[in-house]
Amino acid sequence: MTLVSSIAMPGQIWSVAAQDPSGPLYVTSYGENPLETVVTLVDVTGSVAWRRLYPGTGRPRSRLSADGTLWVAYPEGVGRVLEGVLPDGSTHRAVVPESEAGEEVSAFVLLDDGFCIAWAGASRLLWTVRGDTSAPPPPRVARYTREGDCVWSTPIALGAVSHPGVMGMSRETGWELRPLHPWVPEEVDVDHWEPLLVSGDRVAASYVDARGGIGRTFFLDLTSGAIVSATSPAPSGRKAIAGPGEFLIGSQGYGEFTTRRHDRNGTETARWASHGAMLVNDRGTVCGPELENGLPSRSRFRQLAPDNTLVDGPALTGYYTSCPSMDRAGTTVFWRDGRLLAVDADLTPHDLFARDDSRNVLGRTLLLDDGLVVTSLDSDVVAFRTHLGPLAEGPWPCGDANLPGNPVVS
After folding, report:
1. 338 DSSP assignment
2. Helix, strand or coil for residue 124?
3. Buried b (16+ CB within 10 A) or exposed e, 98-131
């Protein structure tokens, strides 16, 4: 296996996407400062076709459509704009969804007939720069047409949150460490990991207490916007599309280390004592690297069996891990602890590449044509030539969802 290229971007990378396995790569990153978003089109050899700069919110957001149009969210005046950029770098069109002052496109996905947006208060960085001291509007999830007309808008009430693992002491407890009583968050934001997923006729929108990390996932009907159900408050974690209308919801922290499967009614149908960046292939197999908070690592590559048990794969060193990808033979590939690792369908590990690399901002791992593996390490896009086969089919994140980075399964 060989290193093909290492392509430097202007700042930390938030997203790498491709229209199809032949490339090229659409890279969304910071610019020279956190309030600048940069979009770059490159091929896998490092040749830059074009680069565009946008005003930023401190959190670059982009999604790639099936026709190769990259949609970028950015602030313009007091509003928010979704702009489509064509493969040649020109502007396709701009959509201005109706919004309230202080709202931010905190997450969005592309639908066949428009957009779904998770709104929340603007980032703290944007507040500070603008000197805004007003209270942010309450969060909501909304669906829009291609022209930006609102189809439905549903307020999200996170409510009081708590978790047995969140401890505190005060005069009321006699200065003894005890579980905190439920509290109402001062600031509500979308979850950092997979905040907005759409599968079939269901939306999974995840919001958290921005200061404590305790949150809930709300399951909405895609047609009407009605809230079908919501999870109980829990530490936030990784999430995935498990099948039509079904989702995996992970939770980690404060003693929690679990993954739950929810059906289209939001009912919990399975639970595993594991948490990580999980894949779901076309046979419904769930597997991936665990992401336990702690060193030395006790994480393993795991399969989540249908009977709620775990199948042990190889032990994993290190901590920071890229989102994995899988080929049609069932081999999973990801970056961890300075190595490009592959775990085959028999759970046998293989070191594909290794170097002294301690960077800890890792992105998705894309599997392209002819075994080309692409991942982002901080501000670099790194490409490797491997013997892996074509990208697997499956609800998450195999198939198309792995390449354009648009977490929608019809």
Report:
1. T
2. helix
3. ebeebbbbbbbbbbeebbbbbbbbbbeebbeeee
Q: What share of the chain is helix, strand, coil (3-state, %, to 5)?
A: 5, 50, 45
CB 117 within 8 A of CB 99: no
Q: With a threshold of 0.85, does the pTM exceed it? A: yes
d(CA 343, CA 345): 7
Which burial class, exposed, middle or buried, applies to 390 when counting CB atoms under 10 A from its CB (0-12, 13-18, 19+)?
Answer: middle
Query: Residue 35 and residue 57: Cα distance in Å, rounded?
Result: 5
Tokens for 349, please give them: 């590990």
CA angle 319, 15, 254 (to 5 degrees): 35
Sign of CA dihedral 249, 292, 235, 143: negative
Spatial contact of 43 and 5, defined as CB atoms under 8 Å apart: no
Find out whether 109 and 115 touch, Cβ atoms under 8 Å.
yes
Determine contact, residues 409/200, Cβ cutoff 8 Å: yes
In three-state secondary structure terms, 362 is strand
d(C-alpha 85, C-alpha 252), whole Å: 37
User: In sequence order, which residues have a C-beta less than 8 Å from that of residue 309 and are 6 or more positions away?
Assistant: 272
Amino acid at 235: P
Which residues are within 8 A (CB) of 165 and not within 5 positions of it... i.e. 6 or more apart? Answer: 179, 235, 253, 254, 255, 256
Of 75, 95, 206, give the one whose Cα is nearest residue 144.
Answer: 95
**pLDDT (tens digit, 0 to 9) for every residue of the chain, 410 residues total?**
788 889 999 999 999 999 999 999 999 999 988 899 999 999 988 899 999 999 998 899 999 999 999 999 999 887 899 999 999 999 999 999 998 888 999 999 999 999 999 999 866 666 555 556 667 789 999 999 999 999 999 999 999 998 888 877 666 666 777 777 888 998 999 999 999 999 999 999 999 999 889 999 999 999 999 999 999 999 999 999 999 999 999 999 999 999 999 999 999 999 999 999 999 999 999 999 999 988 888 999 999 999 999 999 999 999 999 999 999 999 999 999 999 999 999 999 999 999 988 888 999 999 999 999 999 999 999 999 999 999 999 999 988 889 999 999 98
